[in-house]
Task: structure prediction
Amino acid sequence: MEIDKAIKECDDRRLKTKYNNAIYVIQRALALYSIEEVAFSFNGGKDSTVLLHLLRAGYYLHNKEQSLSNGGLADSPIRTIYFESPSAFPEINSFTHDMATTYGLEMEIITLDFKSGLEGLLKAKPIRAIFLGVRIGDPTAVGQEQFSPSSPGWPPFMRVNPILDWSYRDVWSFILTCKVKYCSLYDQGYTSIGSIYDTVPNELLCISHSSSSDGKFKPAYLLSDGRLERAGRVKKSAPSVGRTPVGKVIDGVDSDKNSMLTASVIAVGDEILSGSVGDDLGLLLCQKLHSIGWTVSHAAVVQNDIDSVAEEVERRKSANDMVFVFGGVGPLHSDVTSAGVAKAFGVRLAPDEEFEEYLRHLIGDHCTGDRNEMAQLPEGITELLHHEKLPVPLIKCQNVIMLTATNVPELEKEWFCLIELTRSNGLFTLMEPYVAKRLSTFLPDVETARPLSELCLKFPDLKIVCRRKSRSGPLIISFEGKQDLARIESATEALCNKFHSGAFSEVK
Result:
């Protein structure tokens, strides 16, 4: 069979893995259901085109022991369903009927909507399972597995999704490797095709513009970032996710600069909780945030447990402007941060082909095919933060940033890159930095307690913090505020006036 032969002879190990997994799902379905009980929903798009040829190969391999006389499969006996719509592109209709003729598809043309059409079809035919070209990232893919019963309220049937874990790149690798025909719209810059009312060529593939709005576009398989395949779908404007900076980043002083933005710092690590190591990274991260004028409202250490991470992230992401999580990112059983963040947002982990490419360059053939768990990222909310000094991008999920640093030098580098990205792309706001003055005294706490409490009431806009390095050492009193050093001077002077001269000395 030409499809199976083309895949076996290609050098793309990832594609071979995806192909073998899809064929297994198809053969499993054909073993569970008779040929009369299965159907294939074909819509002429790239995903269902791939599935058409996978079904041809899967059926051929499933029946190989029966010695198909022609050594191939010219006619597919699997019932094909096509939902014909007046809003479909003419090219899609033409391509679909062309494929039916070429491969002898037993095609049922339905003019009703999908749900009503299925209800009528399943009443008339003994269909129990339907092959669908659904991939992770599709709006309908949420919550589905390779075998998923239909949703409540729908007619009962088994949804079979052989290419659920395929990426945009995988789809085009298959089409180009097997040299199969596809709809001509994909050569005109369309990357995801819906109806004539909600689909336009993907602007990311535009190579020329003209006043007649008849621009030229590169073919769909040249789209470099598969996560943007739906950029050609026209939709109502909605708040952007992932790219919206917190506040505004400007050089001058404005109202945003002196407002308070808060962050939470979450460390994931049983080794910290057991006392095996100290939380040096949490301390440094708090210092870095303080240096850009942010207030750290909460710092926590949680167990290497998906639920623990999810619960903490869920609480903090809604209570703070930003959340920074570190630890628990990697290939080990204890690396659960990505899964915890995904659960906190109510999404699942999905393969990210771009992140996998970075990992492949970093650690080579140790992560190939679909076995690279580190390339599973929260679906639909992930943005990769690229910087030339980082071997792999950092991961941002709405207002949560996952840091991969395992030591202080690595965190210093990642923070430097985050600040550079912020200055160029508005990742988050750089606030007016804190200004501070520190006084030292050997007065006992009982003498300073009441005057300091009164001072807190008189200067509520300042942070007044006290600490001792030792019980016999001096008391250090810190006065911190935004920009207004005169205000801090007034507070320190008010405190000194309550005691004898020389009771306090300034700490530089």
